[in-house]
Specification:
Layout lengths: L1 H14 L6 E5 L10 E5 L8 E7 L10 H13 L3 E6 L8 H16 L1 H4 L1 E11 L1 H12 L9 E4 L12 H8 L6 H6 L13 E6 L8 H12 L4 E6 L15 H14 L4
Parallel strand pairs: 3-4, 3-5, 5-6, 6-7, 7-8
Antiparallel strand pairs: 1-2, 2-4
Length: about 270
């Protein structure tokens, strides 16, 4: 009997209480081959509804920088009152549909659990870094209407698959043998996909980024403004690529302040 009681307590702790710091959930529980997963970092208890944010780590669609572009970010966003959800998406290995399908499933999962997690379904956004920024921008522009985020924060994102400015590793890993397919190149050049339903977006990057050229963010910002989408672009003078939430990034504190001010401006915070 004691063993049964302990088992029941363990089960309850895994599925129930948002008072916990973090929980994980399989995105596709009926698919034993899928390792797609979300990690939900909860804020302190509050009587009011919380905004939520889905965090997509980078890694060139080849690996996931899930700590400084994932969990470290999530802990900070949770400290600011967000239900912060890190997405461990499947790597595409040339199947371009896989990451976006995981991102759509994840944001639907957040909204489906809004009552349980005390989430405001109209304040559910996405964060993405580098190739994760490409995925976040894909979610912003290519997802089904019900799965679009309400806002986006993009750190030094891959945006365009135009060979003159793209990050070739991200492009080749996502498209595989179809990397020269003009239709797919156009679809995933996200500056070309902005429409009236693209959410307000904040872009942060470094002027000296040699990995993902600043032209990616500049093109996206221009496309957003052409559609009258609220958008802000902040270029730090130095920092290179991939700083994410590393505290040794020279403008780490400034980046947090800028994000919070922007979220207040668009009425998320």
């Amino acid at each position: 009997m004691k063993r049964i009681f302990l088992s029941l307590c363990t089960f309850a702790s895994c599925v129930c209480s948002p008072a916990q710091t973090m929980q994980s959930f399989k995105l596709w529980p009926d698919d034993n081959a899928s390792d797609a997963e979300i990690f939900v970092h909860y804020p302190s208890a509050s009587d009011s509804l919380s905004p939520a944010i889905l965090i997509c780590p980078g890694g060139g669609y080849e690996w996931l920088s899930i700590d400084h572009e994932g969990h470290d970010m999530a802990k900070w966003y949770a400290s600011q009152g967000f239900v912060a959800v890190v997405l461990k998406y499947r790597l595409p290995r040339g199947n371009h549909t896989i990451p976006l399908s995981d991102a759509e499933k994840a944001i639907a999962f957040i909204r489906d659990n809004a009552g349980k997690w005390n989430v405001d379904t109209h304040k559910t956004g996405v964060v993405g870094s580098s190739a994760g920024g490409h995925l976040a921008a894909s979610l912003s522009n290519l997802a089904a209407p019900q799965n679009r985020p309400d806002f986006a924060v993009l750190y030094y994102p891959v945006i365009s698959f135009d060979d003159s400015i793209t990050h070739k590793g991200s492009k080749n890993n996502l498209l595989g043998k179809n990397s020269d397919d003009a239709t797919l190149v156009n679809r995933y050049s996200l500056e070309k996909q902005v429409d009236d339903n693209t959410p307000p977006t904040f872009l942060l990057l470094s002027d000296d980024d040699k990995v993902v050229l600043p032209a990616n963010s500049i093109r996206y910002y221009s496309a957003l403004k052409n559609k009258n989408i609220p958008a802000s672009l902040y270029v730090f003078p130095a920092g290179g690529h991939g700083w994410g939430f590393q505290p040794n990034f020279l403008y780490h504190e400034e980046s947090k302040t800028l994000i919070l001010k922007w979220l207040e401006e668009i009425k998320i915070k």
